Amino acid sequence: MTGSVVHCLAPAKLNLFLHITGRRADGYHLLQTAFQLIDRCDSLDIARRDDAIIRRTNEVAGVPEQDDLIVRAARLLQKHTGSQSGADLTLHKLLPMGGGLGGGSSDAASTLIALNHLWQCGLTRQQLMDLGLQLGADVPFFLFGRNAFAEGVGEQLQEISSADCWYVVIEPGVQVPTPAIFSAKELTRNTKRVKITDFSSAVKKNWKNDLQTVACSLYPQVNEAVTWLKKFGDARMTGSGACVFCDFFDEDSANEVLRQIPGHWKAWKAKALKQHPMTHLVQM
Question: Catalytic residues, which ones?
Answer without folding.
Answer: 13, 138
